[in-house]
Amino acid sequence: MDNRLISAPKLPKKFIKKYGFQYFTSGENHDYLAEDLLGVYASEEDAFLSAGNTAFSLLRKAAQAVIESPDLLSRFGIPAASHELLRWSIENEWDDYLVGRFDFAGGFDGQPVKLLEFNADTCSLLVETTFLQPEILKEAKQRGIKNDLLESLTGRLRAISSEQNILLTDLGFAEDQLTASVIGRAARQAGWEDVGTKALEEVIFDPDDAVLVEMGGGQAKAYDNLYKAFPWDFILFEEPELWELLTELITSRRVKVLNPAWSLLLQCKGILAVAWQQNPNHPLLLDTAWSAAGLRSRQYVSKPIWGRMGENVSLFHSPNYPTAQTEGDFADSPMIYQQLAHFTTDQEEYRYQGSVFYTDHSCAIAVRRQDDLIMDDDAEFISCYRLA
């Protein structure tokens, strides 16, 4: 990998200030953007994009099996009261998917691409991929790799809804607000003039009316589309009353929520075990099971099925005793067990993880790296340029 690395320029302060991107360059994130650029060959780019298209097809097939199986829904920990919305969503919103991000191991220096997981709902790295990476490459005078993410988001919004308004809502975290702003930018590019932003606590969910925002003077504005910068599993497990309200609003077609509710099934890492069971030995998939005993490999990783950001992950080079593990908020979650994947590394022992954004096709590639055995929230974002 080392012969692909060249020095990365700093983002201009004027650019950072203009777009309010200080979050990615200051404080705890002062070293988040890597000091290098990574060169990627066209053949590697094609392999990643193809992997994203294939992976989405495999996981959607697995989601259909889950919704038809009470045992799998129970294993995913999804309460029976929530099944109505999921089934309705699959039947009526199957083609309304907006955006997600696949994470892969391998893909460089002749290593096969292997699916690690799918960040199917409220994925991060949108800002980095749509705005930061192009600006860094512009400063470096380097040609970029595949990156049609913003254009693809714009096209998806046009295709998903004829109602040209959208409310962006979040829980107050700066990163989520910045991520949601990319969806807002895509909506404006799609010609939608009414793009609102409100914290969740300020949004009114009226089951007899719509999603509303108070405008003052006793007036309220209704929105037909809602982008939530928090995942469906947060609503399912932490805000069950909101799930009930959204069930009424969505199934009565008063509002369309993005991503649709059925993306919850893709977000759960249990979908990886189902996909492997349906497609054993598929070259893109890693052997994945609900117990370590169900794996053929004795080297594996355990992951919480609803985990995020690499939290509560344990890596085993031999059974029983983890080589590395992380702490987090998901220790009580059911686990899946996945064959240990090979990561391409450089001389400084940085591990490189390629990601592919998927809308209705693979539309962009992003890469992170970290000098730890487990990729977590401390990973660097490294911009990629095209190698001849």
Write up what this structure looks like.
The protein folds into two domains: 280 residues, no CATH class; 53 residues, no CATH class. With 388 residues, the protein is α+β, with helices and mostly antiparallel strands. β17 and β18 form a beta hairpin. The chain starts with a strand and ends with a strand. The strands form five sheets. Strands 3, 4, 17, 18, 19 and 20 form a six-stranded antiparallel sheet that branches. The longest helix is centred in the first third of the chain and has 26 residues. The chain is globular and about 65 Å long.
What does the main sheet amount to? 6 strands, antiparallel
The N- and C-terminal alpha carbons lie at a distance of 15 Å
**Average pLDDT score:** 95
Structural classification: alpha+beta
Please provide the count of β strands.
21
Count of discrete structural domains: 2
Low-confidence stretches: none
List keywords for this structure.
2 domains; 21 strands; 388 residues; 5-stranded antiparallel β-sheet
